[in-house]
């Protein structure tokens, strides 16, 4: 028992919240750049002042260590806010564009403007980062936001609600706790933008609801992200970086390596080095380590336990029904059709596959839905070029895992079933902005050939428009 009950919001409560935000946005308070900067600065202050409460909530919900929680849930946000504040003036300026030869004398601009009332639906696995990171973009672009945290992390949900309620006008940002019913009420609103992070099935529901009102969306989903270890990789370093990426947050990361393709000649060495990395990170008994997290709830825990029967466990795989923890595990799947190879794992179980030719890997990955991330370990630039040019995926790393998400200079997002749209850094600002196209025409002269009564208009137009 969590000791916290997350109650659903009624349709009337949701209606009132959206109306409040609509009125706040209409007042124009979010549009001045100084107001946006003030909101971002206050957001950073709120995160710093509530650090201990955030760390406790994340420990209560997910058993996150202080180091992991600060790095992935607080520090990454403070860095994003700082980067946004440094660059916001430049991003928000109207951008002059070239004009065509038919528009001599005119000037063209792209002017970013906020959409209005945005809805941010956050997941449970990184419940602070993935609620607030898109909010940074919403603030920077001049929007208001309703933030819907996950009911599966109730301590964090409650802490977020209390933290924002005491710091921000609810017309600017409103943290709305609730479950499925509250989500349904929210998706039944006339909103201006929806930003959703979560599973593919729920993403489809969100997109269907948005389509009924033609609301633009960003969908940050997931899927099965492959990890490829070529024969020439530095096995010790590769294993360490892969173990880090796979086991952070007990594997409950949307961009965690989901399954491994290792060259047959390197399989034995990789497994040996992976075991060493796990012992180095979490000791001989990972389930007793204060650095290793737990599975979010019993349903997901039982789902993950069932995957251990989908093949031969070649390392780890112990579990604790009381703490809802599963030991880091390497597993040889009995076939490509078992659930561990067809469903997103979202846990510390790592299927191991071998290959002889890179074409086998490319064919397998290309035959499945496009992944959110892909990781390749190799020293061969031709192999690197082959994989990056011939496989479609949201983003990823060469010779590392996860770290592409941590730089504000790279947009983050999926493709196909792994998502629509991107954010982080300037991409967050762009995501929450509509770019108006404006042409300013000169009054110093006029082109008569464009009018229907011009004698040689068609002849001139044919010369120009070819």
From TrEMBL:
Keywords: NAD, Oxidoreductase
UniProt KW NAD keyword: yes
Protein's name according to its UniProt entry: Aldehyde dehydrogenase
Species annotation: Bacillus salacetis
One GO biological process term: aldehyde metabolic process
Single GO term (MF): aldehyde dehydrogenase (NAD+) activity
Domain Aldehyde dehydrogenase: 5-438
Residues passing through the membrane, by range: none
Similarity comment: family membership: Belongs to the aldehyde dehydrogenase family.
Pfam family, one: Aldedh
């Amino acid at each position: 028992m969590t000791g916290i009950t997350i109650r659903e919001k009624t349709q009337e409560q949701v209606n009132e919240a959206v109306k409040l935000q609509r009125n706040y946005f209409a007042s124009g308070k979010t549009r001045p750049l100084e107001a946006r900067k003030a909101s971002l600065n206050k957001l950073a202050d709120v995160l710093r002042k509530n650090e201990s409460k955030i760390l406790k909530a994340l420990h209560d919900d997910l058993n996150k260590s202080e180091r992991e929680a600060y790095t992935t849930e607080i520090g990454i946000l403070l860095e994003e806010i700082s980067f946004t504040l440094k660059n916001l003036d430049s991003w928000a300026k109207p951008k002059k564009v070239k004009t065509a030869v038919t528009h001599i004398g005119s000037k063209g601009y792209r002017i970013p403007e906020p959409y209005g009332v945005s809805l941010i639906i956050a997941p449970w696995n990184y419940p602070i980062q993935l609620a607030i990171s898109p909010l940074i973009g919403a603030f920077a672009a001049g929007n208001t936001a309703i933030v819907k945290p996950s009911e599966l992390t109730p301590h964090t949900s409650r802490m977020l609600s209390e933290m924002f309620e005491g710091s921000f006008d609810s017309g600017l940002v409103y943290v709305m706790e609730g479950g499925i019913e509250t989500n349904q009420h929210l998706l039944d609103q006339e909103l201006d933008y929806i930003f959703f992070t979560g599973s593919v099935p729920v993403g489809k529901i969100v997109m269907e609801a948005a389509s009924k009102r033609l609301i633009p969306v960003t969908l940050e989903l997931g899927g099965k992200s492959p990890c490829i270890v070529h024969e020439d990789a530095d096995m010790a370093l590769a294993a360490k970086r892969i173990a880090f990426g796979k086991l952070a947050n007990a594997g409950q990361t949307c961009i965690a390596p989901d399954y491994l393709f290792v060259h047959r000649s390197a399989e034995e060495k990789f497994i040996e080095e992976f075991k060493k990395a796990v012992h180095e990170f979490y000791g001989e008994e990972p389930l007793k380590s204060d650095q290793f997290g737990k599975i979010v709830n019993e349903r997901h825990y039982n789902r993950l336990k069932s995957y251990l029967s989908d093949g031969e466990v070649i390392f780890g795989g112990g579990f604790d029904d009381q703490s809802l923890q599963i030991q880091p595990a390497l597993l040889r799947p009995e076939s490509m059709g078992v659930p561990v190879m067809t469903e997103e794992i979202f846990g510390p179980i790592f299927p191991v596959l071998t290959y002889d030719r890179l074409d086998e890997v490319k064919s397998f990955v290309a035959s499945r839905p496009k992944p959110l991330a892909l990781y390749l370990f190799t020293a061969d630039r031709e192999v690197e070029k082959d994989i990056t040019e011939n496989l479609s995926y949201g983003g990823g790393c060469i010779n590392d895992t996860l770290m592409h998400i941590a730089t504000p200079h790279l947009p983050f997002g999926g493709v196909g079933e792994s998502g629509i749209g991107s954010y982080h850094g300037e991409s967050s600002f762009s995501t929450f902005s509509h770019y108006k196209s404006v042409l300013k025409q000169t009054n110093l002269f006029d082109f008569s050939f464009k009018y229907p009564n011009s004698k040689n208009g068609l002849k001139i137009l044919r010369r120009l428009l070819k």
